[in-house]
Amino acid sequence: MIEIDTLSVTFNAAGRLVRAVENVSLTVGAQESFGLVGESGSGKSTILRAICGLAPISGGAIRIDGKPVAPQTRAFARQVQMVFQDPYASLHPRHTIDRVLSEPLTIHGLKTTEGRIEQALTDVGLPTSFRFRFPHQLSGGQRQRVAIARALMLEPRILLLDEPTSALDASVQAETLNLLTRLRETRGLTFLMVSHDLAVIDHMCDRILVMQHGKAVEALSREALAQGAMTTDYARTLFTASADRLMG
Amino acid sequence: MTLLSVQNLRVTFDTETGPVQAVRGVSFSLGRERLGIVGESGSGKTMTGRSVLRLIRPPGRIEADSMVFDGQDLIGLPEPQMRALRGRRIAMVMQDPKFSLNPVMKVGFQLTEGLRQRDGLSAKDARVKALAALQAVQIRDPERVFHAWPHELSGGMGQRVMIAMMLIPEPDLLIADEPTSALDVTVQAEVLSILDNLVKTRGMGLIFISHDLRLVSRFCDRVLVMYKGRIVEELPARDLMQAQHPYTQGLLNCLPRIGGPRTPLPALDRSQAWAQE
Ligand SMILES: Nc1ncnc2c1ncn2[C@@H]1O[C@H](COP(=O)(O)OP(=O)(O)O)[C@@H](O)[C@H]1O
Ligand SMILES: Nc1ncnc2c1ncn2[C@@H]1O[C@H](COP(=O)(O)OP(=O)(O)O)[C@@H](O)[C@H]1O
Ligand SMILES: [Mg+2]
Ligand SMILES: [Mg+2]
């Protein structure tokens, strides 16, 4: 469903070239959940941003259903949506939740009904009365639910999730991960998810790509990860550093 | 040796809809060691830390039977004496560096201000000391950071500048509120080792506030687990992963694990009973 073929992204930061992503290839099948892991700065977010046309692609190609992505189009927004790490920054502070959720529909010339907004809130486990609240009146976990609800308004088939629970408490993280899993099952969604937490990736993803310094280091199945069956030094280092996250 | 002893601390906010009790009867003591405070957000960790410095703004108010630091009861201490302790003998690294650095003053000025005013150092000596402090928190280009405005720093950089600023007066007690949450794991490890070193070599006491149970169990000596403004469990940090209290166990159980089942993660049981006094 998603094919990334020898993707390179290079930023020009005040005259200095930053090779954020170099020759990375991966494919995500329909309804699969794929994870990107690696230390901060390794290029994970840049890959998601490149899919959405938010990063300067300097080489390679990104295809969805075999066709090159066209991020500026309305069709793209109805196919792919992104959820960010920081639910504080990603919701407009002066818009009610009602407005946050109806905006994607309005932009696409679709009719917003009260029922549709209430259903969206119910689907992410929030009370319908939250329609009239502002983001600052919600907890971090509640805001992230709103961000997920917003991403789902146009009924996309693909969700790009960038550290969706890194800013949340363990208990709220668990609730949010359970919600994402349930939504993926009931709606047949495809996930491409970024996290620096191997346990979160292991819980959520079928296949994993380990990244370092903008490069793909090693692709792993979930089974290989659980068994510690990695072949590269870096993937092993990451695994060893996550010893306190092992089932055991 | 006891550095700080807190008895029956309460923090209450008088709001339009009535009093909100953020901290309800918390007691603990601290030696020259690393004491962790864990719990979900809203459980009262930050308010407990700020209370030690008496930095609760109205409509919040502090009450305690006693709060003794190095022989002085902070509860009855007149404000001028309290001010003399703050920053100098008891320092706090705030949760969000964006709100604790003054946005309209360059980093260098903020780092040297105390040294010049309080300790009467010359501008040159203060600068040398500030640059050394930046270096001590692993800032690779201290000169550049010294001349930077706070908004020019990344979250992790701002956090380290805050830590440097708090450590310059060599406090006896440092309260660090989520000091590494904005940091990358590798930088996190460096900052923890700096704090650790200060506890070991200078005998500083450290209150380390975090919602990350795994981190606290690795880094601290002792841990307080807070729930709805109360301490529900106190235990050695190395035993945290085998905690006995159902709330602490609940916090641990809702963490995913590598190789764990794909079934939904257990929801946390937020029993009212554990919040009873
Ligand atoms: N807009 C940008 N301008 C310049 N450099 C950038 C920009 N965005 C990201 N980078 C750089 O690209 C690299 C990869 O960043 P990122 O994809 O955010 O990493 P990750 O998500 O793995 O933490 C980093 O070195 C980062 O500093
Ligand atoms: N200005 C305020 N008015 C009313 N309640 C407040 C105020 N500030 C904080 N609180 C309450 O204090 C409680 C404890 O907060 P805090 O110590 O910041 O928690 P933590 O640091 O564990 O996340 C919260 O439940 C919050 O509702
Ligand atoms: Mg990122
Ligand atoms: Mg706090």
Quick summary:
With 248 residues, chain A is an alpha/beta fold. Chain A contains 9 helices and 10 strands.
Number of strands of chain A: 10
Based on the structure, what is the oligomeric state of the protein chains?
A: heterodimer
Unreliable stretches of chain B (pLDDT < 50, length at least 5) are none
Q: Look at the structure and name the CATH superfamily of one domain in chain B.
A: P-loop containing nucleotide triphosphate hydrolases
What small ligands are held by the chains? adenosine-5'-diphosphate, magnesium ion
Uncertain segments of chain A:
none
Tell me the name of the CATH class of chain A. Answer: Alpha Beta
How far apart are the first and last residues' alpha carbons of chain A, in Å?
Answer: 35 Å
The number of helices of chain A is 9
Task: Choose one word for the global shape of chain A.
Answer: globular
Description:
The complex is a heterodimer of chains A (248) and B (277). With 248 residues, chain A is an alpha/beta fold. Chain A has one domain: 3-Layer(aba) Sandwich (Rossmann fold). Chain A contains 9 helices and 10 strands. In chain A, the strands form 2 sheets. Chain A has a 6-stranded mixed β-sheet with strand order 6-7-8-3-9-10, with helices on both faces. Chain A has a 4-stranded antiparallel β-sheet with strand order 2-1-4-5, with helices on one face. The two termini of chain A are 35 Å apart. The relative contact order of chain A is 0.18. The mean pLDDT of chain A is 92. With 277 residues, chain B is α/β, with parallel strands linked by helices. Chain B has a domain at 4-100 and 174-255 and 266-275: Rossmann fold. Helix content of chain B is 34%, strand content 24%. Chain B has helices at residues 45-52, 79-85, 97-100, 107-117, 123-136, 142-146, 155-167, 185-202, 213-219, 246-253; strands at residues 4-15, 18-30, 34-38, 60-63, 66-69, 72-73, 90-93, 173-177, 205-209, 222-227, 230-236. In chain B, the strands form 2 sheets. Chain B has a 6-stranded mixed β-sheet with strand order 7-8-9-3-10-11, sandwiched between helices. In chain B, strands 1, 2, 4, 5 and 6 form a 5-stranded antiparallel β-sheet that branches. Chain B is globular and about 60 Å long. The model of chain B has no long low-confidence stretch (mean pLDDT 90). Chains A and B meet through helix 6 and helix 7 of A and helix 9 and helix 10 of B. The site of one magnesium ion (MG) has 3 residues of chain A, from helix 1.
